[in-house]
Amino acid sequence: MKRGAPEHPAWAGAAGGALAGGLGAALYALHCTDDSPLFVLTWYGLAIGFMTVAGALIGRRTLSW
């Protein structure tokens, strides 16, 4: 089972968080009427960044064996 664990759990968690943040932003963008570039860059970027950091912190603890 050790071969199934990621070698860098924080990086794996960050990748999962970025994927989750990106998918969430894409789904939200389908329903949001405000699509100005400044709004998208600021709020979507912050949300994806937050999810990436959260994924890294959670992944560091939960993905290590």
From TrEMBL:
Keywords: Membrane, Transmembrane, Transmembrane helix
TM annotation in the entry: 12-31, 37-59
Cited InterPro entries: NrsF
Pfam family, one: NrsF
Protein name: NrsF family protein
